[in-house]
Specification:
CATH topology: Rossmann fold
Number of helices: 7
CATH architecture: 3-Layer(aba) Sandwich
Strand content: 15-25%
Order of helices and strands: EEHEEHEHEHEHHH
Helix content: 25-40%
Largest sheet: 7 strands, mixed
Shape: globular
Number of domains: 1
CATH class: Alpha Beta
Mean pLDDT: 87
Low-confidence stretches: none
Length: about 230
Amino acid sequence: MVQFNLQQRELTLKVVYYGPALSGKTTNLQAIHQMVPMGVAGRLMTLETRDDRTLFFDLLPVTFRTRSGYRVKLKLFTVPGQVIHDSTRKVVLNGADGVAFIADSQLSESQANKEAFRNLRENLAANGLDVDALPVVIQFNKRDLPEIRSEEELRALESRRATPVYRAVAISGQGVMETLQGLVSLVWDALERNYDIGGKLQVDRAEFLSQLFKDWNPARVRGGMS
């Protein structure tokens, strides 16, 4: 849940990147860390196993200050995709303001995507959250690989769900910023409905998004883990 401190004039938002193992959750955070201007993002904290899989979680804090003087902290987390780390995923989801579900576009990973999304529903429910009420976007990553879900399939998925769907090649930064922008927009809309966040921060939606993503440059992404 959003943390709003009127005395310290600070707003903290929590976004969780969820999905099956090796779908590109950490790669999204690595790309974001390279895109943001110097001094905006904190240190990307990562704990990995020997086979380069995230064991606990990644945390990338992004901070900026509104013109009205409020400090906004956007904390980005990933969860481990491996089945054995379900309890960790449940803990990391606690208090999430929005979720980016990172799906693997490869046809061979379709079942893993379905199982991970079902697991997301279960763990949100365990935290008292509803996937149909919480701001959620879906990113189909690895669009540069062969034998992937077709554009026709993704458009059909979009037509069946209210959840926005994004295409990405996270290793090169393609679609990464757009995914986060779309999710933060939904988070803002939810906070506006529930807390009149615009009135409290004295900024409107467009200004908030403009300030958060000011000077982000996808061209800075140098590639990394897929």
